[in-house]
Design a protein that fits this description.
By secondary structure, the chain is an all-alpha fold. The protein folds into 3 domains: about 80 residues, Serine Threonine Protein Phosphatase 5, Tetratricopeptide repeat, CATH 1.25.40; about 120 residues, Alpha Horseshoe (Serine Threonine Protein Phosphatase 5, Tetratricopeptide repeat), CATH 1.25.40.10; about 100 residues, no CATH class. About 65% of the residues lie in helices and about 0% in strands. The protein contains 14 helices and no strands. α3 packs antiparallel against α4 and α5 packs antiparallel against α6. It is elongated, with a radius of gyration of 32 Å.
Amino acid sequence: MSDLRLYAPVALVLALAACGGSQQGAALSYGESARRDYERALAAVEDNDCLTATPLLQNVRREYPYSRYAALAELRIADCELSQQHYTEAIRAYRSFIRQRPTHAEIDTANYSIARAYYQQIPTDFFLSPPPEERDQAATRSALRVVRRFLADYPESEHVEDARRIERQVLDLLARHELYVASYYLNRDQPRATISRIQTLLSEYDGSGVVPEALLLMGRTYLHMREQRDARLAFGELVDRFPRSGYAVQARNFLRAMGPTDPVDEGEPEEDGPRRPSGGRGIEPGTDIDDVDDSDPGGLAGSGTPGTDSLEDTSEMGIEVRGTDVEAADIERGRTSGAIEEDIEREERDRAADQIEEDIEDQQREEEP
């Protein structure tokens, strides 16, 4: 009996050790099973077989919610939605992941993937459709907003280079859209609206490859409005910023045709804005350019460009004066002026909605702990 009492503590220790070992084995089995099932699903994702992968990933989330593979499964499900061009579902899934797992190691990937989802919705060239810049730009503006936020929040991410490429392409498309609308207004003899759209382009999409063309159109439009000071400033900025551009060649020709500024006027202080040149020997403010002829010493003929008596005649100088006939091109494709104006109005509404959405997101970010 005494022997049994002696060995009782030993038996108890062995029993507890066996119990702990079984619990550790169960824990290892849980983690290993989660890894095995996730890797099986991941292999299907990498084979672009989302039909097989999605239910496997959903099973990982359901069966192993406390393993690290549950979060990875959520992200891969969103990737599958994106690869299948289910953009709304993909964006919703990525945002859910970001909201629920804000400290996850792949949070930058989720944010970058949202930018990709918007970017992939941007219209592309198709021979039966209008060019991309002539279509709705809601997805394009969203892509720019999201990719810029990504670049600001994750400057060290491995996706930065790809994100900058998206930013450049989106900038160019949005700038070309503004240029398209500006040309549309100019062809409908609404130069103030043309200037407004170009100013939007220069302020919001500076850095795009369209800026030199926009500055040239701005200068030409100011000339059409007989506002030589502003025309000179636009042409001068084009020459200064993009001296090797083909558009700069045209700007120099315009400046040469306009003649030098009045030296007296150059010394006047600026008051309400940039100085307005007097016109010198070039086109005098208020002059009807169509009435200028070769014998007019104060007109284009007197500026060293013989035989040039109107803006339309400057083609001999190598200047493309007339812009794209936007309205005619659209009518050829069956788009009426009314339809174009409806597109522009819808774009303004979308722009306002985007701004509201951006303000809400900024507020939510400020409220985050």
